[in-house]
């Protein structure tokens, strides 16, 4: 019996490891490197109703143990994502979690309605936490009542379970989690990036053209672990944890904190083979530590 | 095919002020089939620098399983790279991107290769390949000053070579475009790599009826997944079309990208 396979709303996962949205494109580039069917799932790049170019460059800046990005939800738009990207992904035996973004409620509803009809989309990830767009995005992710209302509206039209991606840029993450649970969310993914900034000493100006960006990578892991620890004790929703995961030990830590599965973000940029490597190592780790199934570890830090 | 390999440093030396030449050995070198492609390096295991560094390739020797890079030690990553010694290991991902199409120049034709600063290195392997094929090459190399100049003799061994420096301390004073105008240099095709302002000026020159340029940008993943290094195509009515420098480029047909 597999130590790694698990069932979450809408998702039959071969293993609890998946690339995080925005860090894997739509999978095409990584398909040259390994078989995408080895992944637990794929969280595709955020999709908006209309195509978006995103922000001007520079869009990334390095920081100690992490990076700032301000891509700005660049994507080819709903129609092309469905016709080209999701269609292409059908050749792989892997459930897709479609990250849905927008500027206003109607955008989210429209994208959710259409994209949830696609066969290989097994769940939605509602992106209410992108810090890099001027309207929408994070505004929905910082006010509990707004998040709840949006979740409700998207739930009404979605044909698959809805996970809501929480922003760490709030005072009380538990309040946000409870709000989306009340709104009918089927699960939570957390955390999105922390808003940060770097200033170029030569020019005296921010490095990123967007001025601020989202911090990710190992530097944010303690924040993510703390938030998963808090939220998992206060809601009944399954949690896909993320934020700086780059080793098997990190996966174990998220699991102990209360995550059911994990997503890998920035580490894909450092080592594009990280996901299949971690999947293989995780199985080995559990065997070595006499753990029959990954779910045994869930929430052990507070149980 | 893209590979990830711990390659061994064969040699490293400072060939101009802050400019290093490093030769790496490993099976990956045999995969590099075109000049102008690049490698993405992880310099150490440390958390800073966390990300890889894109570095261009100056010379490929597949039979020896080696390739040579020339880079400027500037930030944390390249400075750490410059401290590597013979026998040390470097984590290399590559070869990445699309390089200079050698097949676009025919034997007997003339190609003009225009490079600026740290954009010069990939033109060296390109020139070797073109000469091998019987294409005559003219090189126009621009540097800040004499201290920053490198490989001028190696280029001179392959074809006519003009050197421009901003302060006139080596070759002729001025920019590469000044030299091309002054000498009325013409060719069947041009290939160029350097700062964007230079590429823009080179595109306007028409030293050849057609050509290829290699772009530079801050990169994240280097394989086209992160959307950090996008640029606008020249012909784009919607404003939402994009090209990724790392995977669609770094070499583009002149005029293809809005500079």
From TrEMBL, chain A:
One of its GO terms (cellular component) is cytoplasm. It is an enzyme of class 1 (oxidoreductase). Binds 1 FMN per subunit. Its cofactor is FMN. Residues 4-286 form the Dihydroorotate dehydrogenase catalytic domain. FMN binds at residues 21, 45-46, 99, 127, 165, 191, 217, 243-244, 265-266. It catalyses: (S)-dihydroorotate + A = orotate + AH2; (S)-dihydroorotate + NAD(+) = orotate + NADH + H(+). It is found in: Cytoplasm. One of its GO terms (molecular function) is dihydroorotate dehydrogenase (NAD+) activity. Pfam families: DHO_dh. Its EC number is 1.3.-.-. Coiled coil: none annotated. One of its GO terms (biological process) is 'de novo' UMP biosynthetic process. Belongs to the dihydroorotate dehydrogenase family. Type 1 subfamily. HAMAP family: DHO_dh_type1. This is Dihydroorotate dehydrogenase. It comes from Domibacillus iocasae. The lineage of its organism: Bacteria, Bacillati, Bacillota, Bacilli, Bacillales.
UniProtKB/TrEMBL annotation, chain B:
Residues 2-102 form the FAD-binding FR-type domain. Signal peptide: none annotated. Coiled coil: none annotated. Keywords: 2Fe-2S, Electron transport, FAD, Flavoprotein, Iron, Iron-sulfur, Metal-binding, Pyrimidine biosynthesis, Transport. It comes from the Bacteria. Pathway: Pyrimidine metabolism; UMP biosynthesis via de novo pathway; orotate from (S)-dihydroorotate (NAD(+) route): step 1/1. GO terms for biological process: 'de novo' UMP biosynthetic process. FAD binds at residues 53-56, 70-72, 77-78. PROSITE patterns: FAD_FR. [2Fe-2S] cluster binds at residues 221, 226, 229, 246. Binds 1 [2Fe-2S] cluster per subunit. Its cofactor is [2Fe-2S] cluster; FAD. The keyword Thylakoid does not apply. NCBIfam families: PRK00054.1-2, PRK00054.1-4. This is Dihydroorotate dehydrogenase B (NAD(+)), electron transfer subunit. It comes from Domibacillus iocasae.
């Amino acid at each position: 019996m597999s130590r790694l396979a698990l069932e979450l709303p809408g998702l039959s996962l071969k293993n609890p490891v998946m690339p995080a949205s925005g860090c894997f494109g739509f999978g095409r580039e990584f398909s040259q490197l390994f078989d995408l069917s080895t992944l637990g799932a794929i969280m595709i790049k955020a999709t908006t109703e209309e195509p978006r170019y995103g922000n001007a460059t520079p869009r990334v800046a390095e920081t100690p143990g992490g990076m700032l990005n301000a891509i700005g939800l660049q994507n080819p738009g709903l129609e092309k994502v469905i016709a080209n990207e999701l269609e292409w992904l059908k050749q792989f035996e892997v459930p897709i979690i479609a990250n849905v973004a927008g500027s206003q409620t109607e955008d989210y509803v429209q994208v959710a309605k259409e994209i949830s009809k696609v066969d290989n989309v097994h769940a939605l990830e509602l992106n209410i936490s992108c810090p890099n767009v001027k309207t929408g995005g994070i505004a929905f992710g910082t006010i509990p009542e707004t998040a709840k209302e949006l979740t409700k509206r998207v739930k009404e039209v979605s044909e698959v379970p809805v996970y809501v991606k929480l922003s760490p840029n709030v005072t009380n993450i538990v309040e946000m989690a409870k709000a989306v649970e009340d709104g009918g969310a089927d699960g939570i993914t957390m955390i999105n990036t922390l808003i940060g900034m770097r200033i170029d000493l030569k020019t005296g100006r921010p490095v990123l053209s967007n001025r601020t960006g989202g911090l990710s990578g190992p530097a944010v892991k303690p924040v993510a672990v703390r938030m998963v620890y808090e939220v998992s004790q206060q809601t009944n929703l399954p949690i896909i944890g993320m934020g700086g995961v780059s080793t098997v030990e990190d996966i174990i830590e998220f699991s102990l904190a209360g995550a059911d599965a994990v997503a890998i973000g920035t580490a894909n940029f450092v080592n594009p083979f990280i996901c299949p490597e971690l999947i293989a190592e995780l199985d080995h780790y559990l065997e070595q530590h006499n753990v029959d199934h990954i779910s045994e570890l869930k929430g052990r830090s507070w149980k | 095919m893209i590979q990830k390999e711990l390659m061994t440093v064969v040699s490293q030396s400072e060939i101009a002020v802050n400019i290093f030449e490093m030769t790496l050995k490993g099976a990956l070198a045999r995969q590099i089939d075109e000049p102008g492609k690049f490698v993405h390096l992880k310099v150490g295991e440390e958390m800073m620098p966390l990300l890889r560094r894109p570095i261009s390739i100056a010379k490929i020797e597949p039979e020896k399983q080696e390739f040579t890079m020339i880079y400027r030690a500037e930030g944390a990553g390249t400075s750490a790279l410059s401290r590597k010694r013979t026998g040390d290991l470097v984590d290399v991902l590559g070869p990445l991107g699309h390089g200079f199409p050698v097949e676009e120049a025919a034997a007997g034709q003339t190609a003009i290769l225009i490079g600026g600063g740290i954009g010069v290195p990939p033109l060296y392997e390109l020139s070797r390949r073109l000469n091998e094929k019987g294409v005559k090459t003219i090189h126009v190399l621009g540097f800040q000053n004499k201290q920053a100049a490198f490989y001028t003799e190696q280029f001179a061994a392959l074809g006519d070579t003009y050197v421009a420096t901003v302060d006139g301390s080596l070759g002729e004073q001025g920019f590469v475009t000044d030299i091309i105008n002054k000498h009325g240099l013409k060719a069947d095709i041009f290939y160029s790599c350097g700062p964007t302002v230079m590429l823009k000026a080179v595109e306007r020159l028409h030293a050849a009826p057609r050509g290829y340029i290699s772009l530079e940008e801050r990169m994240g993943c280097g394989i086209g997944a992160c959307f950090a290094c996008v640029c606008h195509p020249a012909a784009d009515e919607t404003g939402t079309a994009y090209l990724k420098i790392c995977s669609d480029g770094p070499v583009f047909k002149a005029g293809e990208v809005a500079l």
